[in-house]
Amino acid sequence: MGLRGKNKSAIALLITVFFIMLVTLSLGVGLKYVKDSSDSMRDESFTLQSAMILEDFLNILKTYPALNEVKDKDSLAVFLSEASLIPLEREDLKVLIEISSARAKINPNAFANKERMLAFKAFLIKNYVNEEYATTLLDVIDGVKEDNRYNTDIFNENPYLFRDYLASENHLLALNEIFKNKYHQNTLKNIDETELFYVSKDKNASIDLNYATPLVWRLTLGCDEDRANALSANGLGAYSSFEDLILSDEENQSLSKFSVSFYEPTIDVKISINKKNEKAFIRFEYNIELKKGSNFVFEV
Question: What pTM was estimated for this model as a whole?
Fold first, then answer.
C-alpha cells in the first residue's frame, strides 16, 4: 500500500474511532434521559427506549460530518472492519449494534430476470434443492397477473399471500413454509439463506463484490465452495476491477448476468436491545452518500 493508501486508511480509522465514541456518548445520554422520564409508564418504557435508540443512531449517521470521508472502497472497508460491532451497556440495558455491507448478498427480487432465475435454478440443483422452489419464488416476485395465470398453484391455496414482490424476510419465511409443506421436503436447509439473501424492494441493487458472501459467489459464478471461500476472503475492499478477480471466461460470463460493483456505500444496521426479559430488534439499511435510511424492521 502506498503513502496515499496509508493516509486514506489512517483517516478512515480516525473517523471510525470518533464515530464509536460519539455513538457511545450519545446513546448513553439518551438512555439516561429515557430511564429518568419513563418511570411512571413502565409498560411503555422499553418500546420508548428502543425507539429513542433508533432515533439517536439515525441522527448520528445523518449529522456526523466525518462520515462524508467514507466515499471510496478503501475508507468504507476500514469503517466496516472497525465499526462492525459496537456493544453498549448501561445498568440493566444492553445494546449491540452490528454494521455490515447491505450489498453483500442477493436480493431475491432480482430473480425476476430470466437469466438470473436460470442461474438460481442451477444453483439449487447443485445443492439438492427442488428447483420448483425457484418457480414458486418467481410467482411471488413477478407481479400480479391480470389473467391469474401463474406457474404454480401457490395462490389457490394461499389467496392472501402478497404477490407483487418479496416484501420482507418474514414474507420469505412464509414462502419457505408453504414450499416445505407442499413438497414435504426440508432440502432448503442445504442453503443458508441468511448468507445468500437480503430482501429489499430494490430489485436492481448491485452486489458489492468486495463483500459478497461465499454462497453469493457460488451462485453468481457457478463455482465450487473452495473457490467461493477464497474470493470472499480476498475481498473486503481489495477489489477495484474485474481484473483483480482473475476469473475464467466461463465465470465472467456467469457473473455478467448479475448487477455488480466494487463500491456500494449502503450499510446494513442491526440493533439488538435487551433489558431483563424484554428484547427488541431493529434493522435498516443506510445510504452513506444520500444520508437516508430505508427498509426498516422494528420488532419488540
Answer: 0.85
